[in-house]
Amino acid sequence: MKTVVGLYDRFEDAQQVVRALIDGGFRQDDINLIARDEKGEYSRYLQSHEGEMEEKKEGIATGAGAGAVLGGIGGLLVGLGALAIPGIGPVIAAGPILAALAGAGVGAAVGGLVGALVEMGVPEDQANRYVEGIRRGGTLVSVRTDDTNSSRAVDIMNRFNPIDINRQAREWQGQEWAEPMETDRIETERLRYEEESIPVTGQSPDVTIPVVEEDVRVEKREVDKGGVRISSHTTEEPIEEQVNLRSERVDVERRPVDRPATDRDLEAFQEGTMDITEKGEEAIVQKEARVTEEIHVRKDVDETVETVRDTVRRTEVDVERLGPEWNRHESRFQDHFKTAFGRSGHNYDYYRLAYAFGYEMAQDERFRDLDRSRFEMEARREWERRGHRTAFDDVREAVYHAWESVRH
């Protein structure tokens, strides 16, 4: 949401703004009006006709004097009341801001009105200027709307002679901003403002044209470009090995013999037991884990130079100085445009700068007496030096025609 604000010298202009906003579809409870009651007549009327104002808002609008004014506003806006603000004096207010000023003593000082405007979304420095404008007899109108309709609200407000608050604030610097201004001084200020607002013949008010240029800042950011996933698992593989195993076996063999017994043989008459053990080999499988390969993982970082191409926009303002006879010559330039460029696909505004350029060069003694070939060479150099976006060859005939006709 945005708050669009306008300040008006005449209460009647502000009243027309309110009516135009409502006719334009803006809601009544989004519109505020605050006016300095210089003579106190509106406040006195409200006090004496309080009940009547509530019951006959539309009817009072057909009356006379203060009743007609207040009835007109009361029939348009939500709420209408009178307040006395120290430093400003008596004021009348209508719309949601009335409740803000009347509640909790907010309207007890100038700062309360400033605070109410700031709460509505007006920057504090601007709010102070608008409050000073009210102190000097102005009437403030504001409307709260969304972005879509804010420009339409500005157009409506600009139809009814709003005060240039920034210019006025510069003139108020050094003057006292404390006490309410007297009616006579308010009228004097208004007359002076109106006289200064009338343009002097041959002059025009200051115009500020913003030159906007886009800048390019190229930054880097890290992005995921994939990678490598490494996983491990165990497999089993059958193996076979040939192993020679030795095995012992005891064989008992009885051999018949016939010989005389020896002393050693006689020892066999003793009783005893002899154990003979059979031994053998069996295969024992032992497994040993051995590292046979290592997987090394590393990141290789490559840096490349990438050329980034884009376009940037820049406001270019072409300034051409036109002499007092320009209007007389321009009608001939327009006729030449119809003949020479009528089927070019461009309108006259496309070539107007070229005609003005040729007109200017015809006024310059350096270029006035050149032949066509030399003139076009110098004109091209000057055209490109000034940085005009249109190619000189596209408008060369317009430049030459203007130079040739004006110098003669």
Write up this protein:
Helix 14 (348-363) crosses helix 17 (392-407). Strands 1-5-2-4-3 form a five-stranded antiparallel beta sheet, with helices on both faces. The chain is of the alpha+beta class. Mean pLDDT is 78; it is low at 56-64 and 197-207. 25% of the residues are buried. The chain has 17 helices and five strands. It has helices at 11-23, 41-48, 50-55, 57-60, 65-74, 96-102, 110-119, 124-135, 147-158, 165-172, 183-197, 263-266, 326-341, 348-363, 365-368, 372-385, 392-407; strands at residues 2-8, 31-36, 80-85, 89-94, 139-145. Among the domains are: 2-197, no CATH class; 326-407. The protein starts with a strand and ends with a helix. Strand 3 (80-85) and strand 4 form a beta hairpin.
**Based on helices, strands and strand pairing, what is the structural class?**
alpha+beta
Q: Looking across the biggest beta sheet, what order are the strands in?
A: 1-5-2-4-3
Strand element count: 5
Oligomerization status of the protein chains:
single chain
| Inertia-based shape | elongated
| Sheet with the most strands, sense and barrel status | 5 strands, antiparallel
Order of secondary-structure elements? EHEHHHHEEHHHEHHHHHHHHH
